[in-house]
Amino acid sequence: MAPDETFPDLAPAAPAPRRWRLVAFTGRAVGAVLVIGALSLFSRETKRPADPPAPAPASVTTTDLGIAFVPAMTLNARPVAPAAGTGHLRLDRAGETVRIEPPRNPQEQTLASGDFSAIEETHLRLTLTRDAAEPQPGLFVTLARRAAEGPNLAVVRTGARGRVATKFGAVETLEATLSGDRRRICTGFVTLEARPVRVDGWLCAPLGQPPEPRALACALDGLALDGRADPATDAVFTEAEARRDPACDPIRALSAQELAGRTGSIAPRRTTPPPKRPRA
């Protein structure tokens, strides 16, 4: 069919080439990408991050919940001043160097003699508690707590239990192996009849041997007060002084002359010189 030449201006326009449509679509896509990038950059510049938190000290750890936890070992215990009018402990044993440790509780005093690390020495550590609350924990619990809180020792083994008669009355005993930089077999003890005062601690004999009951009784026999304490404590020590064992005096006098072969309260053998022969 021939084209209509009556109205040549009304003839339909030819469709645009396909390649031009593709160029227009690409331009619009690139423009959209540029707009999105500009918006992201603008939002990043306007929103500055907060300053990072200060790092925690090395001794402070943070749990999964973000709660700071400070180990108790990193906190320095502040010594507590003893209560006014409290008599100081002393030990009547010849040649013994006695240390009074800083109190952790105003109701307590701790006395120590000898060095736990020196296996050739007798080592005694005891704590006097005034107005001891009732009921008291068992001897093993008390021994483990005293060993950990002061000289940083651990109770690694326990043995036989027993009772020893002392000037403070009956004392419960427990054989215990204490471990620190050395390991020693000692006897833990606690008074049972000195209320309202309580005395607990341990005694270690030389050369790794367990101390004899007699050695513990005589060690407590030398415990006394310098000065006056509260009326209840004074009454306990006054009554105990009246029950001191005279047989412990020679043992205390010889404590500074311990021989390498002695263990516990075994005294060295005394030799009697031979009688002199009369001259002819």
Describe the structure concisely.
The protein is of the alpha+beta class. The protein has helices spanning 18-46, 139-149, 213-221, 231-241, 248-254; strands spanning 61-62, 68-69, 88-91, 98-101, 108-113, 123-129, 154-166, 169-179, 183-191, 198-204, 223-226. Residues 256-280 are annotated as: Disordered.
List the helices and strands and how they pair.
Blueprint: H1 18-46, E1 61-62, E2 68-69, E3 88-91, E4 98-101, E5 108-113, E6 123-129, H2 139-149, E7 154-166, E8 169-179, E9 183-191, E10 198-204, H3 213-221, E11 223-226, H4 231-241, H5 248-254
Antiparallel strand pairs: 1-2, 3-11, 4-5, 5-6, 6-10, 7-8, 8-9, 9-10
- Give the CATH class of the domain at 88-257: Alpha Beta
> Could you give the order of the helices and strands?
HEEEEEEHEEEEHEHH
Structure annotation, total helices = 5
Unreliable stretches, pLDDT < 50, 5 or more residues? Answer: 58-85, 265-271
Structural class call reads alpha+beta
Mean pLDDT: 76
What is the beta-strand fraction? 15-25%
Please give the order of strands in the largest beta sheet: 4-5-6-10-9-8-7
Sheet bearing the most strands, described? 7 strands, antiparallel
Per the CATH scheme, the topology name of the domain at 88-257 is Protein Transport Mog1p, Chain A
Radius of gyration: 43 Å
- Number of beta-strand segments: 11
CATH structural architecture of the domain at 88-257: 3-Layer(aba) Sandwich
Shape, principal axes of CA atoms: elongated
Helix content class:
10-25%
How far the N terminus sits from the C terminus, by CA atoms, comes to 181 Å
